[in-house]
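HUMAN: You are asked to prepare a plain-text protein record giving the amino acid sequence and the backbone structure tokens, both parts labelled.

ASSISTANT:
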Amino acid sequence: MATNLILGAVLLLCLAAVAWPFFFYPLILRALPTRPEQPVAGPLPSASLLFCAYNEAAAMPEKLANLAMLRQLYPALEILAFDDGSSDGTADLIAGQGDLVTLLRGPGRSGKAHGMKQLAARARGDVLIFTDANVLLDADAVDRLLARYADPDVGGVLGSLHYVGAQDSATASVGSLYWRLEERLKDEESRTGNVLGADGSIFSIRRSLYPDFPDSVLDDLTVSMAVVFAGKRLVKAKDVLARERLVTARSDEYRRKVRIAARAWHTHRHLRPQLRRMAALDRFKYGSRKIVRWFGGLFILTGAVAAGALAMRISPMLYLIGALAIIFVIWVGVRAKSGPFAALVDVLIAYAATVQGVAKAMTGRTVTTWNPAKSR
């Protein structure tokens, strides 16, 4: 009986840990008071828009047209790009736009973090706006983003990323759902104080806060967290919209998540001394949205083992039925291109990729360079 209770407790704890970032944590955030911004009248700051590219020739025509539209609306907007040794003519496409984009050509594969540091050192704007080579910004995005800097306590502003193509595959559908949950979490974190980290699709910081960091870290997390470490607010603007096409192939998404998780954990270790000095609320947010999620795959595995052991102790037949049901669901999900079983398999794959990436980083390995997904 005691063993059954222990196994049941382990199972419940694992279920709670998996649900924490998506259910319990949001409930706690909603109960916290709002921390309002306090804007001061004055002119908008100047801005530089930065992005890195590697073999993005397919995305460049639309990206460059988007940049031309933004420059027409904001003539003073400085735009800089770093090409990380592309072999498909990406750099030539950018250079062919004349003075629209200031292009820095890398000597070879050196990685996004290295490229962004080169661009930040060249930029002249008061605010640095970071985005990706395959991300498109809405026409009013720059204006609305810069308006949030009217509050002198705001040191960084995130935009809202809307994914395109959620209906193209189960992988894309799961990715879209996950990101909608992520966006809502960031909205609540922003309302209550600070968002704990940005992704590279669309975010900005005051140029004076740009930190120094090694090329091996995740630059968007490192740069955005520098705002919090400096005692400024990192907030999210719901009305600053960026759009990106989802990855549709499981293999592309798996490799992407392994790479991101490996670099995120490596970055976590790099930032650990500063993370420990954050305010208690920010430490709670960081642990809830990042650390607990990074180990979600281990919680699922531990919970599955505990559930299996408990079922075996209760009834071997119950264990057999449960095992066959799981095998059937996974078998159907792997073969299906849509539907709930396919979505469940994609969720499990995402957790497995994250655990693999974290484990990779824990052994001292990380990923510096990247390759664009072919299935976007």
About this structure: The chain has a mean pLDDT of 89. The longest helix spans residues 2-31.
